[in-house]
Amino acid sequence: MASAMELTSEIVAQEELVKALRARKVSKEEIDSATQKLSLLKTSYKAATGEDYKADCSPENPAPGDERGLDATEAGEDFVDPWMVQTSSAKGVDYDKLIVRFGSSKIDQELINRIERAIGQKPHRFLRRGIFFSHRDMNQVLDAYENKKPFYLYTGRGPSSEAMHLGHLIPFI
After folding, report:
1. pLDDT digit of tens for each residue in the chain (173 aa)?
2. WHEP-TRS domain: which residues (predicted)?
3. What angle do CA 131, 136, 137 make, to 5 degrees?
4. What residues form DSSP beta bridges with 86?
5. Are residues 92 and 118 in the same domain?
6. Among 25, 68, 105, 122, which lies 20 to 30 A Cα-Cα from 97?
7. Are 155 and 110 part of one and the same domain?
């Protein structure tokens, strides 16, 4: 059985898919199929947690047998999820371990310099100050940009319709 965190991620992704399908005005059958899958995921979530799924709420308890739960800090590991960061280390979170755990790559000075050369101006201050510390496939994006080939970035964030509000500003910073 999937953990509450895994189910939450799947539910969020499926909700985004349903919104996108509705925005594109696809056939009723496609929307119904996606909605049915969403309903099944929410049923699985309730079976795993004993609670109804609530958007934007952290699962109260990790699934039994999930070693990454709050007790992970007792084992000397950092615990990071979309709602909480915990560490047992007096030095704070070990970002190198997070990079390995999430399969990303460290943003080093060489990459920052390459970004600056590509865009012709200083990179965003969050990059320069090390606030953004890792990436996935940034070299591929830069290769495409430098070779003037089209590419797209999917962030999983942003408006799902043409209506925009102040909260949509974050992805544009």
Report:
1. 667 778 888 888 888 888 888 888 888 888 888 888 888 888 888 888 888 888 766 665 444 444 444 455 555 677 887 678 888 888 888 888 888 888 889 999 999 999 999 999 999 999 999 999 999 889 999 999 999 999 877 665 555 566 666 666 666 66
2. 3-59
3. 130
4. 79
5. no
6. 122
7. yes
